[in-house]
Amino acid sequence: MLSVVIPAKNEQDNIEPLVSEIVAALGSDCPFEVIYVDDGSTDNTYHVLRSLALSRFPQLRVLKHACSVGQSTAVHTGVYHAKGELIVTLDADGQNDPADIPALLDAAKSFSSSQCFCIAGYRKKRKDTAWKRFQSRIANGIRSRFLNDDTPDSGCGIKLFPRETFLKLPYFDHMHRFIPALVKRQGGEIRVVPVNHRDRRHGTSNYTMLSRLWVGIVDMFGVLWLQRRAKIAQVVFEDE
Question: Any residues with CB less than 8 A from the CB of 14 and at least 6 apart, and which?
């Protein structure tokens, strides 16, 4: 089973189009569920989700945080409560295209369910301003050089990984930005799949350039610290 996990904060107008696209993209190819985690929204996000779950989309499950605790915690909540062996994450703003999910599933077929891996999306043609694309190139270049995470676009929200893999990762705020590096730290393999990137349809981003920059620098050094202290044991003998 596949679980599509979407953290959302104040995205009331983006919910119905995105859920409709997910259902259309996955069809009857595999059993799936869509888990939205409302991270303390102050608009009608939760009420829209509940209404859609009750009236139109039986695949939709809704979880709600009492107050906003951040995107990484929302992702962790969704994965923890997921029923699927495989997890796909998407951003709630509609900029990730659900039509790319089948390509990620195809890439995952080369792995067994017991393997540790991550299929990471790569927004090769980003729908952002030239200034934002420039910032992203610099940030991705620095991160890749420091962390050697085998992905050119770690900030892309669309990713696929086993639920078991994710739950073994060290949890901290903003960890969602470093999932490939953390998976690789566990001895896992990273695959990159080019994906579509779209303009935000409604609303505004919950992040600013300065907030991303500061936490990115601090957390990057934290992940580097974790990488250098990782030990992966290989059991060569088991006495039963």
Answer: 92, 93, 94, 200, 201, 202, 203
* Whole-Å CA distances, 56 to 91, 196, 198, 231: 21, 27, 25, 47
Paired residues of 153 in beta bridges: none
Distance CA 233, CA 80 (A): 25
pTM: 0.84
CA distance 142 to 162: 27
Residue whose C-alpha is closest to residue 67's, from 6, 12, 11, 9: 9
The whole-chain average pLDDT of the chain stands at 85
Angstrom CA distances, 231 to 172, 205, 210, stand at 19, 38, 34
Q: What is the pLDDT of residues 17-54, one digit of tens each?
A: 999 999 999 987 789 999 999 999 999 999 999 999 99
Spatial contact of 143 and 220, defined as CB atoms under 8 Å apart: yes
- If we measure between CA atoms, which residue out of 40, 34, 42 comes closest to residue 15? 34
The answer to whether 8 and 41 have CB atoms below 8 angstroms apart is yes
Q: In angstroms, rounded to a whole number, what is the distance separating the alpha carbons of residues 19 and 156?
A: 19
How far is it, in rounded angstroms, from Cα 63 to Cα 25? Answer: 23
Alpha carbon distance 201, 93 (integer Å): 7
Residues 6+ apart with CB under 8 A from 128: 136, 197
